[in-house]
């Protein structure tokens, strides 16, 4: 394992493409992908008390309270695989208080990717999204259709992926994003997210390669 692995945060509005890009980043850079939304959905699927409470907020498009989310993400982040291979934190932190919870633990990213997609595109991306419960892969009926009939037949839709709910999720996003960005001012890079999946990844790939090069340089000349 690298002595000082890459640490990445990725943020952006609902359906801006975070999960899709994380699959590609993970495949190329071998980082441990930690998605706050996926961790919460796993709690719901397992029927835990935290999951039950979280679902009430997720259905309203609101942030799940810190007393559920903060320790859940922290525990995952501090596991040895993430510490050794580096991490890719998706959809966390999402508020000033969550950012401060990480600051107190001295947990900071090398780079903070902010996917920038106009609102008009987000609704279409949300309502067409499907996921494969077997592989976890994210599809879109129009933009990334399933490879065959067998996969198509088993795709599922998220409970919060309706036009009405994405509007609430967007409001929540815009009311929190500014307070969050100030914390990561020196490492934020805006990525244009309204082109194809591959074009978006090409931008991210370059940014992460240059982050890695900078870290290597620092190791040589501290
Ligand atoms: P979460 O699961 O994180 O949802 P989100 O932020 O709304 O983001 P999404 O997962 O909807 O979208 P994405 O950006 O990953 O897009 P994707 O790649 O799938 O959170 C859900 C809820 O959990 C929150 O509302 C909140 O209640 C709670 N929560 C989560 N984190 C929390 C936190 N830190 N604190 C408190 N509560 C929290 O892409 C979307 C679609 O577009 C797909 O169909 C995809 O195929 C397609 N697509 C992607 N890229 C492209 C492209 N370039 N061109 C065309 N189509 C594309």
From TrEMBL:
Which is one Gene Ontology cellular component term of this protein? chloroplast
Give an example GO biological process: energy homeostasis
Compartment list = Plastid, Chloroplast
Major site of localization recorded for this protein: plastid
| Reactions this protein catalyses | AMP + ATP = 2 ADP
The domain of life is Eukaryota
Please give the Gene Ontology molecular function terms for this protein: AMP kinase activity; ATP binding
Name the Enzyme Commission number(s) assigned to this protein.
Answer: 2.7.4.3
Alphabetic keyword roster: ATP-binding, Chloroplast, Kinase, Nucleotide-binding, Plastid, Transferase
Q: Which family does it belong to?
A: Belongs to the adenylate kinase family.
UniProt protein name: adenylate kinase
Task: Please tell me the species this chain comes from.
Answer: Eragrostis curvula
């Amino acid at each position: 394992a690298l002595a000082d692995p890459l640490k990445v945060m990725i943020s952006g509005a609902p359906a801006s493409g975070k999960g899709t890009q994380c699959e590609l980043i993970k495949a190329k850079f071998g980082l441990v992908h930690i998605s706050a939304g996926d961790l919460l959905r796993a709690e719901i699927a397992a029927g835990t008390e935290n999951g039950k409470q979280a679902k009430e907020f997720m259905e309203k498009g609101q942030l799940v309270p810190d007393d559920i989310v903060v320790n859940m993400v922290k525990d995952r982040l501090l596991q040895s695989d993430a510490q050794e291979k580096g991490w890719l934190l998706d959809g966390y932190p999402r508020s000033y208080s969550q950012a401060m919870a990480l600051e107190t633990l001295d947990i900071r990213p090398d780079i903070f990717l902010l996917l920038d997609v106009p609102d008009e595109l987000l609704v279409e991306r949300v309502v067409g999204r499907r996921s494969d419960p077997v592989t976890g892969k994210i599809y879109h009926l129009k933009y990334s259709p399933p490879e065959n009939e067998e996969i198509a037949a088993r795709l599922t839709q998220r409970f919060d992926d309706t036009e009405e709910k994405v509007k609430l999720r967007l409001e929540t996003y815009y009311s929190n994003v500014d307070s969050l960005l100030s914390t990561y001012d020196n490492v934020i890079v805006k990525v244009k997210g309204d082109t194809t999946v591959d074009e978006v990844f090409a931008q991210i790939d370059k940014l992460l390669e240059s982050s890695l090069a900078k870290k290597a340089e620092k190791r040589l000349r501290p």
